[in-house]
């Protein structure tokens, strides 16, 4: 076996061990909360952009109607 493979196994085992400690579980919990917050923020941003796009299209339709009348 190569040294890189063995080093990878050791690092992986250390990460798994850390994630099973209370500190590691807290870290995973914090990552999940942060990911949920980012998801909510992105959904709100997308909704805002859609609303702004609809408002813009409404204004443009009114301008076209005024110009063609």
Question: Topology, please?
Answer:
Blueprint lengths: L2 H17 L2 H47 L1
Principal-axes geometry comes out as: elongated
Ends: how far apart? 81 Å
Q: Share of helix among residues?
A: over 70%
Low-confidence stretches: none
Q: Helices and strands: which structural class?
A: mainly alpha
Mean pLDDT reading? 95
Percentage of residues in DSSP E strands: under 5%
Q: How large is the count of helical segments?
A: 2
Number of strands: 0
Number of domains: 1
N-to-C order of helices and strands = HH
Radius of gyration: 26 Å
How would you describe the overall organization of this protein?
The protein is mostly helical and 69 residues long. It has one domain (3-68). The chain is built from 2 helices and no strands.
Task: Give keywords.
single chain; 69 residues; mainly alpha; 93% helix
Short description:
Helix content is 93%, strand content 0%.
């Amino acid at each position: 076996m190569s040294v890189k493979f063995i080093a990878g196994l050791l690092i992986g085992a250390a990460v798994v061990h850390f994630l099973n400690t209370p500190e590691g579980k807290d870290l995973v919990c914090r990552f999940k909360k942060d990911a949920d917050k980012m998801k909510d923020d992105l959904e709100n941003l997308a909704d805002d952009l859609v609303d702004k796009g609809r408002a813009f299209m409404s204004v443009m339709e009114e301008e076209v109607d005024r110009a063609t009348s």
